[in-house]
């Protein structure tokens, strides 16, 4: 791809290792390349979206070492050695993650552009275990803007998955 | 974004040496503000020093009974640390009032101290700004200044400091640990950030080559009577128009200790020790709270669009002190103001 | 299995249905305009100007060209030749005037105008080089403040196509107002708002070896963009395909081609390479916006609130080069019965880019003013705000003296009020309280036009019995894919999984831009027609099959279900649809259909969607913080094709109204002539924490005249009136009437 050609020309490129959706990747990155641009332009993982490029919308949210983060504000070189999970790694049609299923069932999106970030954020929210009420879900999902205004459906979807996981927990006990 | 050299420091010594070699370099930790500003070409460092490998990500007890927070501890880890949540809930609350969960995972304690203003003009290289380009002028003074400062301004700059964390740290009387070319030293929180004066380009009193290593919280905590109230243009994920950190000790119906700091109103977290002194030994109530608020805002000045902040700050101080006194600190998830 | 059979047989239209594009959207597989690649792809980055008016004296591109990987920097000095005539730049929805031409000359018409395009081998090289392009200017005096020019307002000399000017006055509104015992006369304003879809504007031009272009563009109309490109660049229609399979929100800003489309095509043609140009979020604020509009509303009524005079005057800002127009004041003569009405709409020119349609253009502004004034009139007359609406209910359109095709607004009022509990409201402002918070209940009416536009569709059945329905319409998050698939499934009695919907491609059957709430009704009506024609073709073919069971029946004697054609009278006699196709020795059979407004109906009838919105706010009395705690929006919009997606459309409109009512405002520095809060941190749109309970009701509203399928459209109605209902609730809570949106803390405390 063209950006890789450019890179091979760049004396500034730094070798890094990232595990992206379970696959180890050894990459040459210029220090001014963000993780988001690396994912989208070099890795072709365009599921992570660029909505503002400044940490103001959450569309670029991915999981870095299991924690949600705005990939647009992360220089890729700084995350050498990290594990990255993007929306593509959560699940694909035919084998969707329960949160992806819940988003479809609750119509928790319209245009779909903020959706990968919302879902990555929601998956992290469940793992963090700090949201127990709709109020808390709303606050802990406020880093993901949805201009189509699907918020109430997003909360429904997350509540649904939270309910499933607590049911599972109860069943295991 | 300006092209830069990338240097990865493996220990504090390396970082200090790298900084000493190029004092105009920028340190990158979480990057949430630096990368943001570099993309806007507001920050244009020649060299960026990555300190993420440094062992500065722990929270440790100090001999004097306080806590020492490593500069690389993330805002999320700090807010949810059980010692912080139990002993310094004001700080937890302020942290959780800021940014978003994903930003708090990235942003660090040291970086938060060095957050730069949200002034529209500072961010827009198509306009003049004395902070970004000294001597170019300050269009905010007669321009769009809804979010600007009402205290401690100068005719050069009316920008505000945007941090929530720092407001709580100012109220808690924290200290900043720094290592620089001359060795280690601590800076009282009050002295860390500056007012703009005639050098608005300087946000802090750090010297060239300084590296923040930790923030220390003193032993004295305020677990019973505290509150952080943040007022903004939407319910979450927005910078403060006005925020107030209040911490009190109340014994036998009298205030024996008071801490009061404001965010969103000045070039630095605005702590007012005179107002605190007025509160001390008073009876908690609207009368003493209003008097303290009046004291804080004695020198306040509005610039048009932001003039409402004077009244808003007065009201917010009274309310936050009441929340603190009543032991009903503001929740950051329940948006009803207590 | 019995369940499956009944499921297959059931009608699909009207059932809540998951989006057919859902799996792609939730897994990152849906590709948007800036997400297509080519081996020879170059990246373009726009350089925006910093002055509001004047001339570029010089542009120094040398430092930018020195960045490794930079291929070219285009400015007005080296721009390749493009079309000369204005008409070539005028797209389908352009207002009268001279459309802006990127890099056309040294003139600067507005702050943020594109002055250069840097093209490089990588995104980063283009981005980083763009910062090094340095321009010097000869600034001229500018005016961006509408208040400074509102005295020079004018009636637009040339009307914008499709936008009804205010109707002629009826009765004598001035005289009636002068003697009315109850009066309201106030000025209302709404701040400048920017659309801010989540996806930034982007165009990827993929150029094949023969020079043919496939253009992935963020647009609400692939054929509108295609016509613009062929006109401006002198290309053949057959050499240009525009694709907008997924559009990351638009809300009107994607109706007209934006400058990144021009720049990307220009660069691709000049460099003979594929090129992608993506705007930054900040640059999104250099595009169109909802115009600032100053409105004066005068209402006069009898003591009980019966309206006797309505006067509504609006002055809206527009650019110096185009007269953007929208319907702001006509609603005041439509929504309520009144014999003395005077409506006027004027423009005033400022040095900004041309404003544009933004969700429910005009109505969002005009109905805010009207419904705020109606609330004021209710208090002035001492009647309940809901009762006031009922007292003045309009049974026909007095503006045009025509009947409504249907109007179930009374049901909206009744069902909305019931669900909300309106009858428990205490009339006095500041009379309801919950701790520190004052509680306010407000209501308003919403209205938006309902229509279909001429649209074509194709239905095509494969030899395996799979149905494909297609049209060059767009799905900007509205659910068009799903509605098309549902319509096809319904027509053939197929499960929706056996139907594929295709849209967002200029080579598909002709469709207008996706806007105005007409897409679902128009496209699905066209799909019905295409399916009807295809079914007839299949029937004909089936009759010619050996041993055909259909030899002795006519078309009305067959049914389509479960992938088969069968005798209606004997369902056991059936043939698989795929077999019919195979019998024609073809891989697929197809037919085109269309839908268009019926001019006979239009002579007699008008059609509108309506809504009644009920809002609860809680306002902290000391601190002025407003929380919207409850909204009920009851909508009458004809047949609801997919209640699941339709509900989401209303939710979205309501949330955008919450933004407009309480948060959204683009601040202009009039000294610099520049919008200043051009990012998502300082231009506040609602976040999740802002939004609590929203209850959507669709009332029954049979309508056989608006569209063949019975639908009216629901994209805009959710926002209309909702801003007023919020403002009215704030008044009820606080006793403060705030007539300029957004209602921020400072205005509550003032």
The CATH architecture of the largest domain in chain A can be named as Roll
Strand content of chain A: 5-15%
- Portion of residues in helices of chain B? 25-40%
**What is the assigned CATH homologous superfamily of the domain at 225-326 in chain B?**
CO dehydrogenase flavoprotein, C-terminal domain
Radius of gyration from the alpha-carbon trace of chain B, in angstroms: 19 Å
- The shape of chain A is elongated
Number of helices of chain A: 7
| Helix-strand topology string of chain A | HEEHEEEHHHHH
CATH superfamily of the largest domain in chain A: Beta-grasp domain
Task: Give a count of the beta strands of chain B, DSSP E runs of length 2 or more.
Answer: 12
Characterize the biggest β-sheet of chain A. 5 strands, mixed
Q: What proportion of the residues of chain A is helical, as a percent range?
A: 40-55%
What is the overall pLDDT average of chain A?
92
Which outline of chain B best applies? globular
SSE-based structural type of chain B? alpha+beta
Number of DSSP-assigned strands of chain A: 5
Domain 2Fe-2S ferredoxin-type (chain A): 14-90
GO molecular function (chain A): 2 iron, 2 sulfur cluster binding; metal ion binding; oxidoreductase activity, acting on the aldehyde or oxo group of donors
InterPro entries (chain A): 2Fe-2S-bd, 2Fe-2S-bd_dom_sf, 2Fe-2S_ferredoxin-like_sf, 2Fe-2S_ferredoxin-type, 2Fe2S_fd_BS, Ald_DH_CS_CYS, Aldehyde_Oxdr_Iron-Sulfur, Beta-grasp_dom_sf
Keywords (chain A): 2Fe-2S, Iron, Iron-sulfur, Metal-binding, Oxidoreductase
